[in-house]
Amino acid sequence: MTSTAKVLSSARRPIVLVHGLWDSPRLFDRLVRRLDVDQRTLLVPHLPHGLGAVPLVTLAEQLDDHIGHRWGDDAVIDLLGFSMGGIISRVWLQHLGGARRTHRFISVGSPHQGTFTAQWIPQWLLAGLADMKRGSALLRSLNSDLSSLQSVDCVSYFCPWDLMVVPGWQAHLPVGTVRSLPVLTHQQLMSHSRSLDVLVQAFLRDARSADW
Predict the structure, then answer these.
(1) CA atoms of 129 and 148, how far apart (whole Å)
(2) Each residue's pLDDT tens digit, 134-181
(3) CATH of the domain at 42
(4) How many CA atoms lie within 13 A of 58 on its CB side?
(5) Most buried residue among 29, 58, 170, 199 by CB atoms closer than 10 A?
(6) Are the beta carbons of 135 and 114 closer than 8 angstroms?
(7) CB 114 within 8 A of CB 132
(8) What is the CA radius of gyration of the chain?
(9) DSSP 3-state of 106
(10) What angle do CA 48, 54, 55 make, to 5 degrees?
(11) CA 165, 187, 46 angle in degrees (round to 5)?
């Protein structure tokens, strides 16, 4: 599927929201109310992560199962990943073929370059957390080949003072549009009204050339 075909898709594309570590689908309740979307076009899957023990590749495979079960293999979607959910989303996009059916990927406070808060976590104990170490094998793999993301409208948001993803100013994709949000904490990225206003507009934006 070409990028042009994806741009011309309906403005009411299905939306998939992917939660992070120690979160659940309820994380997105405020955002969903703001979006006011038809439940038939919304998927907020629960991805049990075992407090960080489940490898992120396994969680991405679960995400793939959820999307396939809901819409089959062809429906074009918009995808948002928060925190660890942004890395799970990238695995799905880049390693499981998700990019071919994704119009827009919105990353919010995700450790695309890793986070020092996970640096001393052993892989054998908490594999999912260890996947988010700076320099982890998974992140090296994702960042070494970004070609599959070139057809996706990628947008990243981060909090410079984030204490969960450290350093916070690196919590963005290496491609696409990057913006900081005027909040003070990691959780406020998904709860503060100023963040939610921006995220709703990101879903409504349809032209790649739009001014930010």
Answers:
(1) 25
(2) 999 999 999 999 999 999 999 999 999 999 999 999 999 999 999 999
(3) 3.40.50.1820
(4) 12
(5) 199
(6) yes
(7) yes
(8) 16
(9) strand
(10) 130
(11) 95
Tell me what pLDDT residue 74 has.
87
58-110 pLDDT tens trace: 999 999 999 999 999 989 999 999 999 999 999 999 999 999 999 999 999 99
The answer to whether the bond into 55 is cis (omega within 30° of 0) is no
Residue 136, domain member (yes or no): yes
Report the 10 Å Cβ neighbour count for 48.
Answer: 10
Separation of alpha carbons 173 and 212, rounded Å: 17
The count of structural domains within the chain is 1
Residue 211 lies in a domain: no
Q: State how far the Cα of 132 lies from the Cα of 31, in Å rounded to an integer.
A: 25
Residue type, 64: D
Structural domain range at position 149: 3-204
Within a domain: residue 212? Answer: no
- What are the pLDDT digits (tens) for 3-45? 434 443 445 799 999 999 999 999 999 999 999 888 889 999 9
Residue the block writes with tokens 């995400």: 63
Burial class (CB in 10 A: 0-12, 13-18, 19+), 7: middle
Strands (E), the chain: 15-18, 42-43, 77-82, 102-108, 153-158, 177-180
Dihedral, CA of residue 3, residue 175, residue 109 and residue 184, to nearest 10: -120
